[in-house]
Design a protein that fits this description.
Length: 84
Amino acid sequence: MSSPLELKLYGAERCHKTKYYQTFLNSRNLHYEFLDVEVNDNYAKELRVLYGNGKLNFPTLTLGNKKLRNPTEKELTKWLAKLK
């Protein structure tokens, strides 16, 4: 039995775009892990490794080995539809 893929949101509490994605995911009752890259250095390191450029490219959503950086609502809806 395979484990379900974990949805993660890398962002910052003060970031309005991060808050937008939190509201978007919450309104659809989707379980996700919020990783605040400004509060936790380990989360920041994870995010920097994802892109390999050493920058904190947030907000970024990940699901398994797939990632979306600052997607539009349409892109995010299409991406999340593949979960079902």
